[in-house]
Design goal:
With about 425 residues, the protein is an alpha+beta fold. The protein folds into 2 domains: about 270 residues, Double-stranded beta-helix, CATH 3.60.130; about 120 residues, no CATH class. The protein contains 7 helices and 24 strands. A hairpin with a 2-residue loop joins strand 7 and strand 8. The longest helix is centred in the first third of the chain and has 14 residues. It is globular, with a radius of gyration of 21 Å.
Protein backbone atom coordinates (compact mmCIF):
# COMPACT_ATOMS: atom_id res chain seq x y z
CA UNK A 1 0.00 0.00 0.00
CA UNK A 2 1.08 3.58 -0.63
CA UNK A 3 0.09 6.47 1.64
CA UNK A 4 -0.96 9.48 -0.42
CA UNK A 5 -3.56 11.40 1.58
CA UNK A 6 -4.38 12.64 5.04
CA UNK A 7 -7.44 13.29 7.13
CA UNK A 8 -7.65 17.07 7.48
CA UNK A 9 -10.64 17.44 9.78
CA UNK A 10 -9.69 18.86 13.17
CA UNK A 11 -11.10 15.94 15.14
CA UNK A 12 -9.19 15.10 18.35
CA UNK A 13 -9.90 11.36 18.06
CA UNK A 14 -8.15 11.34 14.68
CA UNK A 15 -4.95 12.90 15.94
CA UNK A 16 -2.03 11.26 17.66
CA UNK A 17 -0.95 13.15 20.78
CA UNK A 18 2.63 12.27 21.70
CA UNK A 19 3.99 12.50 25.22
CA UNK A 20 7.47 13.03 26.61
CA UNK A 21 8.88 11.13 29.54
CA UNK A 22 11.72 12.52 31.61
CA UNK A 23 14.98 11.56 29.96
CA UNK A 24 17.79 10.15 32.07
CA UNK A 25 21.02 9.27 30.28
CA UNK A 26 23.47 6.69 31.64
CA UNK A 27 26.30 8.41 33.49
CA UNK A 28 29.93 8.29 32.42
CA UNK A 29 32.92 10.39 33.48
CA UNK A 30 34.36 10.59 29.96
CA UNK A 31 33.47 10.04 26.33
CA UNK A 32 35.28 8.00 23.71
CA UNK A 33 33.95 10.23 20.94
CA UNK A 34 36.16 12.08 18.50
CA UNK A 35 35.31 14.54 15.74
CA UNK A 36 37.04 14.65 12.36
CA UNK A 37 36.13 17.72 10.24
CA UNK A 38 34.87 16.84 6.76
CA UNK A 39 37.25 17.79 3.95
CA UNK A 40 35.23 19.46 1.20
CA UNK A 41 37.80 19.91 -1.57
CA UNK A 42 39.69 22.89 -3.00
CA UNK A 43 36.80 24.38 -4.99
CA UNK A 44 34.32 24.25 -2.11
CA UNK A 45 33.47 27.16 0.19
CA UNK A 46 31.65 24.86 2.65
CA UNK A 47 33.04 25.25 6.17
CA UNK A 48 30.78 22.99 8.26
CA UNK A 49 30.41 19.30 9.05
CA UNK A 50 32.35 16.65 10.97
CA UNK A 51 32.38 12.87 11.20
CA UNK A 52 31.99 11.39 14.68
CA UNK A 53 33.68 8.15 15.71
CA UNK A 54 33.70 6.19 18.95
CA UNK A 55 30.09 6.71 20.09
CA UNK A 56 27.40 4.04 19.88
CA UNK A 57 24.17 6.03 19.63
CA UNK A 58 22.14 3.07 20.88
CA UNK A 59 24.05 3.32 24.16
CA UNK A 60 25.20 6.94 24.47
CA UNK A 61 25.95 8.42 27.92
CA UNK A 62 25.64 11.87 29.43
CA UNK A 63 29.35 12.43 28.73
CA UNK A 64 28.81 11.38 25.11
CA UNK A 65 25.90 13.77 24.80
CA UNK A 66 27.90 16.73 26.12
CA UNK A 67 30.55 15.96 23.53
CA UNK A 68 27.89 15.66 20.80
CA UNK A 69 26.18 18.92 21.77
CA UNK A 70 29.43 20.88 21.88
CA UNK A 71 30.55 19.41 18.56
CA UNK A 72 27.22 20.10 16.89
CA UNK A 73 27.20 23.78 17.80
CA UNK A 74 30.73 24.14 16.42
CA UNK A 75 30.45 22.00 13.27
CA UNK A 76 26.67 22.43 12.72
CA UNK A 77 26.35 19.00 11.07
CA UNK A 78 27.63 15.66 12.39
CA UNK A 79 27.87 12.29 10.65
CA UNK A 80 27.99 9.33 13.04
CA UNK A 81 30.09 6.59 11.49
CA UNK A 82 30.75 2.96 12.38
CA UNK A 83 27.50 2.41 14.26
CA UNK A 84 27.46 -1.22 15.51
CA UNK A 85 23.73 -1.58 14.82
CA UNK A 86 20.92 0.38 13.22
CA UNK A 87 19.83 3.21 15.53
CA UNK A 88 16.47 2.36 17.10
CA UNK A 89 13.61 4.88 16.84
CA UNK A 90 13.51 5.08 20.64
CA UNK A 91 17.18 6.04 20.86
CA UNK A 92 16.86 8.44 17.93
CA UNK A 93 14.10 10.27 19.77
CA UNK A 94 16.14 10.26 22.99
CA UNK A 95 19.12 11.78 21.17
CA UNK A 96 17.07 14.46 19.44
CA UNK A 97 14.96 15.47 22.44
CA UNK A 98 18.01 15.65 24.73
CA UNK A 99 18.91 18.94 23.05
CA UNK A 100 15.86 20.58 24.61
CA UNK A 101 15.14 19.28 28.13
CA UNK A 102 12.80 22.23 28.76
CA UNK A 103 10.46 21.01 26.02
CA UNK A 104 7.75 18.97 27.77
CA UNK A 105 5.13 18.07 25.14
CA UNK A 106 7.21 15.54 23.20
CA UNK A 107 5.45 16.79 20.09
CA UNK A 108 6.43 16.51 16.44
CA UNK A 109 7.70 19.76 14.95
CA UNK A 110 4.58 20.14 12.79
CA UNK A 111 2.05 19.39 15.54
CA UNK A 112 -0.07 16.35 16.31
CA UNK A 113 0.04 13.73 13.58
CA UNK A 114 -3.34 13.14 11.92
CA UNK A 115 -4.69 9.67 11.24
CA UNK A 116 -3.78 8.44 7.76
CA UNK A 117 -5.13 4.92 7.41
CA UNK A 118 -5.80 1.57 9.08
CA UNK A 119 -4.06 -1.40 7.49
CA UNK A 120 -3.60 -5.00 8.64
CA UNK A 121 -4.66 -4.13 12.16
CA UNK A 122 -2.36 -1.12 12.51
CA UNK A 123 -3.40 2.54 12.79
CA UNK A 124 -0.99 4.68 10.75
CA UNK A 125 -0.54 8.33 11.70
CA UNK A 126 1.62 11.02 10.16
CA UNK A 127 1.43 13.51 7.32
CA UNK A 128 1.30 12.64 3.62
CA UNK A 129 4.47 10.88 2.46
CA UNK A 130 5.82 11.00 6.02
CA UNK A 131 4.17 8.33 8.22
CA UNK A 132 5.01 8.10 11.91
CA UNK A 133 6.75 4.97 13.19
CA UNK A 134 4.16 3.16 15.36
CA UNK A 135 6.57 2.29 18.18
CA UNK A 136 7.96 5.88 18.41
CA UNK A 137 5.64 8.35 16.66
CA UNK A 138 8.01 11.33 16.95
CA UNK A 139 10.18 9.53 14.38
CA UNK A 140 8.89 9.55 10.80
CA UNK A 141 9.69 7.69 7.60
CA UNK A 142 10.98 9.73 4.66
CA UNK A 143 11.84 8.45 1.23
CA UNK A 144 10.29 6.25 -1.44
CA UNK A 145 9.60 2.57 -1.78
CA UNK A 146 8.86 -0.48 0.38
CA UNK A 147 9.90 -0.72 4.01
CA UNK A 148 11.88 -3.69 5.31
CA UNK A 149 9.81 -6.57 6.68
CA UNK A 150 8.63 -6.27 10.31
CA UNK A 151 9.77 -2.66 10.44
CA UNK A 152 9.02 -1.26 13.91
CA UNK A 153 5.31 -1.99 13.89
CA UNK A 154 4.48 -1.19 10.26
CA UNK A 155 2.19 -3.77 8.61
CA UNK A 156 3.53 -6.07 5.86
CA UNK A 157 3.74 -4.56 2.40
CA UNK A 158 3.89 -0.97 3.59
CA UNK A 159 5.34 1.43 1.03
CA UNK A 160 6.19 5.12 1.21
CA UNK A 161 5.53 7.45 -1.71
CA UNK A 162 8.36 9.92 -2.29
CA UNK A 163 8.27 13.60 -3.13
CA UNK A 164 8.03 14.58 -6.79
CA UNK A 165 8.83 18.02 -8.17
CA UNK A 166 6.06 17.58 -10.76
CA UNK A 167 3.55 17.94 -7.91
CA UNK A 168 5.03 21.21 -6.63
CA UNK A 169 7.41 23.00 -9.01
CA UNK A 170 6.46 25.44 -11.74
CA UNK A 171 6.23 23.73 -15.15
CA UNK A 172 7.93 22.78 -17.39
CA UNK A 173 9.19 19.80 -15.43
CA UNK A 174 12.14 17.55 -16.18
CA UNK A 175 11.06 15.02 -18.84
CA UNK A 176 10.71 11.44 -17.63
CA UNK A 177 13.53 10.08 -19.76
CA UNK A 178 15.93 12.75 -18.46
CA UNK A 179 14.90 12.02 -14.87
CA UNK A 180 15.56 8.32 -15.34
CA UNK A 181 18.97 9.24 -16.77
CA UNK A 182 19.79 11.12 -13.55
CA UNK A 183 18.51 14.69 -14.00
CA UNK A 184 17.34 16.06 -10.67
CA UNK A 185 16.32 19.18 -8.73
CA UNK A 186 16.43 20.58 -5.23
CA UNK A 187 12.89 20.04 -3.99
CA UNK A 188 12.62 22.72 -1.27
CA UNK A 189 15.23 24.78 0.57
CA UNK A 190 14.09 25.17 4.17
CA UNK A 191 14.73 24.77 7.85
CA UNK A 192 12.44 22.33 9.64
CA UNK A 193 9.45 23.93 11.32
CA UNK A 194 5.71 24.44 11.10
CA UNK A 195 6.09 28.25 10.70
CA UNK A 196 2.93 28.67 12.78
CA UNK A 197 2.50 28.45 16.56
CA UNK A 198 5.05 25.68 17.18
CA UNK A 199 8.71 26.66 17.75
CA UNK A 200 11.08 25.21 15.13
CA UNK A 201 13.29 22.32 16.29
CA UNK A 202 16.77 22.99 17.55
CA UNK A 203 18.16 19.94 15.76
CA UNK A 204 17.23 17.45 13.07
CA UNK A 205 18.29 13.80 12.99
CA UNK A 206 18.27 11.44 10.02
CA UNK A 207 19.08 7.72 9.92
CA UNK A 208 19.76 6.01 6.60
CA UNK A 209 17.97 2.62 6.54
CA UNK A 210 18.00 2.01 2.78
CA UNK A 211 19.73 4.15 0.17
CA UNK A 212 19.33 4.24 -3.63
CA UNK A 213 22.10 2.59 -5.65
CA UNK A 214 23.31 4.07 -8.91
CA UNK A 215 25.51 6.70 -10.58
CA UNK A 216 25.54 10.29 -9.34
CA UNK A 217 22.57 12.45 -10.26
CA UNK A 218 22.86 15.85 -11.91
CA UNK A 219 20.93 18.48 -9.93
CA UNK A 220 19.95 21.33 -12.24
CA UNK A 221 19.32 25.00 -11.47
CA UNK A 222 17.34 25.42 -14.71
CA UNK A 223 18.95 28.84 -15.22
CA UNK A 224 20.34 30.52 -18.33
CA UNK A 225 23.88 29.50 -17.42
CA UNK A 226 22.97 25.82 -17.25
CA UNK A 227 24.25 25.51 -13.68
CA UNK A 228 24.27 22.00 -12.26
CA UNK A 229 25.88 19.96 -9.49
CA UNK A 230 26.62 16.25 -9.38
CA UNK A 231 25.89 14.37 -6.16
CA UNK A 232 25.10 10.94 -4.80
CA UNK A 233 21.52 9.75 -5.42
CA UNK A 234 19.26 10.53 -2.48
CA UNK A 235 21.69 13.09 -1.06
CA UNK A 236 20.53 15.74 1.40
CA UNK A 237 21.83 19.14 0.28
CA UNK A 238 22.80 21.71 2.91
CA UNK A 239 24.03 25.30 3.10
CA UNK A 240 25.12 27.38 6.08
CA UNK A 241 23.12 30.45 7.08
CA UNK A 242 26.41 32.01 8.23
CA UNK A 243 27.74 31.77 4.68
CA UNK A 244 24.46 33.18 3.33
CA UNK A 245 24.91 36.19 5.62
CA UNK A 246 28.56 36.63 4.68
CA UNK A 247 27.82 36.69 0.94
CA UNK A 248 25.41 39.64 1.13
CA UNK A 249 26.57 43.13 0.25
CA UNK A 250 26.99 45.40 3.28
CA UNK A 251 23.76 47.33 2.73
CA UNK A 252 21.67 44.16 2.49
CA UNK A 253 23.51 42.57 5.42
CA UNK A 254 22.60 45.51 7.67
CA UNK A 255 18.97 45.17 6.63
CA UNK A 256 18.71 41.47 7.44
CA UNK A 257 20.51 41.97 10.77
CA UNK A 258 17.73 44.32 11.85
CA UNK A 259 14.65 42.89 10.10
CA UNK A 260 11.93 40.31 10.67
CA UNK A 261 9.78 37.91 8.65
CA UNK A 262 6.13 37.17 9.27
CA UNK A 263 5.22 33.69 8.07
CA UNK A 264 1.78 32.82 6.75
CA UNK A 265 -0.55 31.08 9.22
CA UNK A 266 -0.69 27.36 8.41
CA UNK A 267 1.95 28.17 5.81
CA UNK A 268 2.03 24.76 4.16
CA UNK A 269 -1.74 24.75 3.68
CA UNK A 270 -1.56 28.36 2.47
CA UNK A 271 0.96 27.44 -0.27
CA UNK A 272 -0.47 23.98 -1.05
CA UNK A 273 -1.98 24.97 -4.42
CA UNK A 274 0.89 27.22 -5.48
CA UNK A 275 4.08 26.36 -7.38
CA UNK A 276 7.64 26.40 -6.16
CA UNK A 277 10.40 28.01 -8.16
CA UNK A 278 12.52 25.49 -10.04
CA UNK A 279 15.37 26.17 -7.61
CA UNK A 280 13.08 25.26 -4.71
CA UNK A 281 13.70 28.40 -2.65
CA UNK A 282 10.54 30.49 -3.19
CA UNK A 283 6.90 30.29 -4.27
CA UNK A 284 6.07 31.68 -7.70
CA UNK A 285 3.75 34.69 -7.52
CA UNK A 286 0.74 33.48 -9.50
CA UNK A 287 -2.04 34.29 -7.04
CA UNK A 288 -2.52 30.61 -6.20
CA UNK A 289 -2.04 30.89 -2.44
CA UNK A 290 -5.13 30.18 -0.37
CA UNK A 291 -6.95 33.13 1.14
CA UNK A 292 -6.37 33.50 4.87
CA UNK A 293 -10.13 33.12 5.28
CA UNK A 294 -9.97 29.68 3.66
CA UNK A 295 -7.29 28.33 5.98
CA UNK A 296 -7.96 26.17 9.03
CA UNK A 297 -8.81 28.19 12.11
CA UNK A 298 -5.88 30.38 13.18
CA UNK A 299 -5.06 33.05 15.72
CA UNK A 300 -3.02 36.21 15.20
CA UNK A 301 -1.17 35.58 18.46
CA UNK A 302 0.15 32.28 17.08
CA UNK A 303 1.52 33.72 13.83
CA UNK A 304 5.32 33.38 13.75
CA UNK A 305 7.33 36.57 13.31
CA UNK A 306 11.04 35.76 13.46
CA UNK A 307 14.27 37.71 13.08
CA UNK A 308 16.02 37.05 9.79
CA UNK A 309 19.30 36.38 11.62
CA UNK A 310 19.63 33.84 14.43
CA UNK A 311 22.56 33.50 16.85
CA UNK A 312 24.27 30.26 17.87
CA UNK A 313 23.98 30.21 21.70
CA UNK A 314 27.33 28.46 22.21
CA UNK A 315 29.55 30.12 19.61
CA UNK A 316 27.83 33.47 19.01
CA UNK A 317 27.91 32.89 15.24
CA UNK A 318 25.11 34.60 13.33
CA UNK A 319 23.18 32.89 10.54
CA UNK A 320 20.69 34.12 7.99
CA UNK A 321 17.90 31.66 8.78
CA UNK A 322 14.85 32.13 6.58
CA UNK A 323 12.15 30.03 4.90
CA UNK A 324 11.53 31.71 1.56
CA UNK A 325 8.41 29.78 0.61
CA UNK A 326 6.51 30.55 3.81
CA UNK A 327 7.34 34.27 3.90
CA UNK A 328 4.17 36.38 4.00
CA UNK A 329 5.24 39.83 5.16
CA UNK A 330 8.58 41.58 5.82
CA UNK A 331 9.46 44.23 8.40
CA UNK A 332 12.65 45.86 7.12
CA UNK A 333 15.06 48.14 8.99
CA UNK A 334 18.62 49.12 8.13
CA UNK A 335 19.61 49.71 11.78
CA UNK A 336 17.97 49.07 15.18
CA UNK A 337 16.49 52.55 15.55
CA UNK A 338 15.75 53.04 11.86
CA UNK A 339 12.41 53.58 10.18
CA UNK A 340 10.58 50.34 9.45
CA UNK A 341 9.42 49.51 5.93
CA UNK A 342 6.71 46.86 5.69
CA UNK A 343 6.52 44.75 2.53
CA UNK A 344 3.09 43.15 2.11
CA UNK A 345 2.85 42.59 -1.64
CA UNK A 346 3.99 39.00 -2.18
CA UNK A 347 5.82 39.95 -5.35
CA UNK A 348 7.94 42.43 -3.36
CA UNK A 349 8.37 39.99 -0.48
CA UNK A 350 9.68 37.31 -2.81
CA UNK A 351 11.93 39.69 -4.71
CA UNK A 352 13.66 40.56 -1.43
CA UNK A 353 13.82 36.91 -0.35
CA UNK A 354 15.44 36.03 -3.68
CA UNK A 355 17.94 38.84 -3.13
CA UNK A 356 19.05 37.40 0.21
CA UNK A 357 18.78 33.66 -0.53
CA UNK A 358 20.10 33.20 -4.05
CA UNK A 359 23.75 34.29 -3.44
CA UNK A 360 24.47 31.23 -1.26
CA UNK A 361 22.62 28.76 -3.49
CA UNK A 362 25.58 28.01 -5.72
CA UNK A 363 27.48 24.73 -6.08
CA UNK A 364 30.56 25.90 -4.19
CA UNK A 365 28.47 26.68 -1.08
CA UNK A 366 26.43 23.47 -1.01
CA UNK A 367 27.32 20.29 0.86
CA UNK A 368 25.52 17.27 -0.61
CA UNK A 369 25.61 14.56 2.04
CA UNK A 370 25.96 11.05 0.54
CA UNK A 371 23.96 8.88 2.93
CA UNK A 372 25.40 5.49 3.86
CA UNK A 373 23.16 2.82 5.35
CA UNK A 374 23.30 2.74 9.16
CA UNK A 375 24.98 6.17 9.34
CA UNK A 376 23.19 8.92 11.25
CA UNK A 377 23.39 12.65 10.57
CA UNK A 378 22.53 15.33 13.10
CA UNK A 379 22.32 19.00 12.13
CA UNK A 380 21.76 22.29 13.92
CA UNK A 381 18.40 23.29 12.48
CA UNK A 382 18.81 26.91 13.55
CA UNK A 383 21.92 27.46 11.43
CA UNK A 384 21.56 25.35 8.25
CA UNK A 385 19.11 25.18 5.34
CA UNK A 386 18.58 21.86 3.62
CA UNK A 387 16.79 20.25 0.70
CA UNK A 388 16.03 16.74 -0.45
CA UNK A 389 17.04 15.81 -4.01
CA UNK A 390 15.38 13.44 -6.46
CA UNK A 391 16.81 10.28 -8.03
CA UNK A 392 15.70 7.71 -10.67
CA UNK A 393 13.16 5.11 -9.55
CA UNK A 394 15.37 2.39 -11.00
CA UNK A 395 17.93 3.11 -8.28
CA UNK A 396 15.72 1.43 -5.71
CA UNK A 397 14.20 2.54 -2.40
CA UNK A 398 15.26 5.35 -0.11
CA UNK A 399 14.14 4.74 3.48
CA UNK A 400 15.13 7.25 6.13
CA UNK A 401 14.09 7.76 9.76
CA UNK A 402 13.74 11.45 10.58
CA UNK A 403 13.25 12.93 14.03
CA UNK A 404 12.66 16.59 14.74
CA UNK A 405 10.90 17.71 17.88
CA UNK A 406 9.16 21.00 18.57
CA UNK A 407 11.36 23.33 20.63
CA UNK A 408 10.53 24.96 23.93
CA UNK A 409 11.31 28.43 22.61
CA UNK A 410 10.95 30.52 19.46
CA UNK A 411 14.08 32.06 17.88
CA UNK A 412 14.68 35.59 19.13
CA UNK A 413 17.76 36.56 17.16
Amino acid sequence: MVITATVTEDVPQLRLAATKEKLVLPHAENTTGRAVPIEHGPSSQVDFGAEIYGIDLNNFTDADFKFISDALHVHKMLVFKEQPQMLTPQQQYKLTSSFDPEETTGGFAHGHDPFLTHHNGVDIYGIPKRPAIPVQPQVHILGRGPLPDEHYGFPPGFEVQGIDHEEFHLPPHIPAEEREAGASRFYQWHFDGSLYNIPPPRVGCLLAVRTPKGPDVKVRWEDEEGTYMKMAPGATAMVAGSQALKLLDEETRQIVLNSKIEYAPHAFVWMSQAHSTRLGHLIETEGLEKSLDDLPKWEKSKVCVYPMVWTNPKTGEKSLQVHGQGAYKLYLKSHPDGEETVLEDLKDVRAFMDRIMRPVLKPENIYAHPHKEQDVILWYNRALWHSITEFPKSYGPRVMHQCNVAASDHPTG
